[in-house]
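#onboarding

Welcome to the new folks! Below is a worked example of what a typical request in this channel looks like: someone posts a single protein sequence, and someone else replies with the predicted structure as tokens. Don't worry about understanding the tokens yet, we'll cover that in week two.

Example request:
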Amino acid sequence: MYVTAFVQPTTGETFWYVSNGVSKPFFAGLLALFAREAGAGRDRIIVLGLDSAGWHTAPNLAVPDGIRLAYLPPYSPELQPAEHLWPVLDEPLANQYFETLADLERVVANRCRGLDGDQLSLGTNFHWWPKPAIPA
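Example response:
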């Protein structure tokens, strides 16, 4: 099971996606879904900071209109706001046993739904992160 998250660092607004695998075609579809849900397009450009995982990079990665990809330096997870979501997401999973993958998925999905931007921005709104001139 994989959890992918796109987070707006200053507000903590997060788009969560739970899947059973990752690949370049899957990530392209996820980018398209995220672009639709977040309203990306000609009038709203969203810059995503990503690591250089094989499924995040060219060639052959379809990137929807309104999405721009910016790659972080190698081996720098501390610079990635989304990396700071995982400890918060994992809290109800620690030291727990799940009978089935479906049970685990249900707990993860409920945790994703229950987290709010105020909780998450505490870990993602780095002091050095550029603050928008107009609130997001």
